[in-house]
Fold:
Amino acid sequence: MPQEKPLFERVALIGIGLIGSSLAHVIRRENLAGEIVVSTRSPQTLQRAEELGLGDRYEADAAKAVEDADLVILSIPVGAYSAVAKQIGPHVKPGAILTDAGSTKGSVVRDVAPHVPEGVHFIPGHPIAGTEHSGPDAGFASLFEGRWAILTPLPDADPEAVEKLTAFWTACGSKVDTMDPEHHDRVLAIVSHLPHIIAYNIVGTADDLEAVSKSEVIKYSASGFRDFTRLAASDPTMWRDVCLSNRDAILEMLGRFSEDLAALQRSIRWGDGDALFDLFTRTRAVRRSIIEAGQEVDAPDFGRHPEIQTPGE
Amino acid sequence: MPQEKPLFERVALIGIGLIGSSLAHVIRRENLAGEIVVSTRSPQTLQRAEELGLGDRYEADAAKAVEDADLVILSIPVGAYSAVAKQIGPHVKPGAILTDAGSTKGSVVRDVAPHVPEGVHFIPGHPIAGTEHSGPDAGFASLFEGRWAILTPLPDADPEAVEKLTAFWTACGSKVDTMDPEHHDRVLAIVSHLPHIIAYNIVGTADDLEAVSKSEVIKYSASGFRDFTRLAASDPTMWRDVCLSNRDAILEMLGRFSEDLAALQRSIRWGDGDALFDLFTRTRAVRRSIIEAGQEVDAPDFGRHPEIQTPGE
Structure:
């Protein structure tokens, strides 16, 4: 239900891709801000945002966009944070909340905190939501519904500001958790970064084969491969930056994954059917838990077959 | 449109899981057989098939089920083929077509061919379709629609029988390709077996972490991980057998995957952003091709958000 009185007078959205444009939609729908100011580096994207009517005002200059905003949200690739923070820092007004939607949090604290003026509430954040599409056309108001938003406030964060930002994400439809940036980065390394890296890798491997043609890979992809192509179609700039910004946690998870894969490969080589069966049984329960937690659709094949209802298990 | 006259007088479905029960539904809908005989090893499953009305007759004994059938379809885990072929072989009538839906074809030729009597047309097959659900409740008539069915006839196969089986799969809604069993097994190793193995592995890795709790993995799974849990929820017996039956091709693909992953890991460790960006860009095109080929839904996030239409790319 839309707010009677906006939570914020002016929100500045820096970056207007999938996350930024989804925020614009839901802020509008829920009446979360009196004014939405949109800024992004590319003139084409800014123009497209205007054509889509995502904001009330459009600024090519991010420093101008944040002026007098009481909420500033960065939704840009994490590799660009340092430069943008340096640019906008001096122009964010005291008392304002500065947050973001980046997939890594340690790097964000490192890159942004030095540029945050006294009196500005810097509270890093990360909505756990997305699709494989990107750009201002990709956003939609319900993206955050039922998903989690993680905040990683610094030890000296103002509780009232954290509460206000929590109210914002709640109004967007999200559930909110707080944790420290290091823990966030380890959690995301396994639930998000590793899956994307593995998906990119397997699609690359398939694309490189000589003995199997590209057309065969495409024709028969419904047997499993196509699932991986979704994550592997995600925004390349965003994911390059994630890999560079969360290196240590990603390398740790990759090490564990490869170790487990070597053991699984050995079971296949030596025909250890029991070991295979045990692993393949254990993993089944995980999906059931995710569906029960409301984080996945309860329909076979992700609901790709709308003509059928969920059959009994 | 249903056939005016059934293609076959009597079809025997040996195994009545996801594939067998989907066949039962589409055979009925399209009037592809005068009579459907269902057989499966487990008395509970056979009873459930009867409750669901999947067949016209139910036989605990597969040898009895195949009597006088002019089409026999094995839809059982490939590890069970040898024993079942030995059991039913002598009872399949001359002139009948004996085919299957197994995910490996070299092992099927090896395990079944020795038990096929003179005059029976043994044509291994594999519909490239499925969901992560299993059992007689999981089937639905449209499973094969628009998907490929691969036949791997032996060199001395009767062209007329191959043509008739092709007509059968076409009537099920499939497109049909033929290739030799070795090539099938290499193709499926990359498009199906490797993706499943990788999915099982990553879900296992996540389940084993100490630093990240199971509840965190589940809560934040919408950031990528949940995609992998679908394949990792597939039938454990089926997939154990696939791993054991297509060992060589799977080990080859695993070798390539791990080699590529080591290179990718090195790019992450040494901060080679250009290499990451290049790979992440190249993989994006593969998904577009799969959607254009009609092998994937043209909606963001597999259509998990029915409230939105496909945004412009």
